[in-house]
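so my prof wants the structure for this chain in the tokens format not the other one, which i didnt know existed until like an hour ago. anyway here's the sequence
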Amino acid sequence: MRVGIIRFPGSNCDFDTFGFFKKFGHSPEFIWHKETKAKNWDLLVLPGGFAFGDRVYVKATHNYTIDPGELALRSPVMKIVFHFARKDLPVLGICNGFQILVKARLLPGELKQNSSKRFFCDFTHCRVVGKSFFDNVQMINKTYLLPVAHGYGKFEVSKRKYEDLKGNGNIFLEYVKSNPNGSFKNIAGVRNNKGNIFGLMPHPERTPDGKFFMTALEKYVSKR
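here's what i got, hopefully its the right format
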């Protein structure tokens, strides 16, 4: 696969993601946030981190609010993201990338501060459910231990929208045993209706092996 990995100022999982794809013999390349020209990537990835420090400053002051993903929306590279979305090409957002895709309304819901009001960094158990790039026959209902590291990972959605997501199989990952952020109905990952845009808070690219995740991506992209 030829994989485009977007780098915003503050991205800190970009090299993790790059190394993950390189490890399995693929061809990743970085895309700086000021770039606007899409290439023939097989997959576009928005990695984790803190794009623009998650901060939005009040003009001409040192005051700011924490709003993950807000400033990333103003970056020129979002033209590439929206281009992929319009063409129904694969887009994957991990952690901060998930926050950005939600902010851009390419994925449903909202991502708010963890219920604990604290940054959470540890491993947590997640179960594959619904429809996704995961192999539904071999991976559905299986549980994996995945790293998480976020302060604003609480996924919220209306009950009506939840029923819609659930009914269409668009919730593909759920927390089990413990919920690190208070997400509604333990939601850890969702996709769009067309099935080409995915977002999740856990970091499968940081797992010691990660082969299960890469194999699923390879199968998904090969069938596009």
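also thought this was worth mentioning. The domain at 2-222 is CATH 3.40.50.880 (Rossmann fold).
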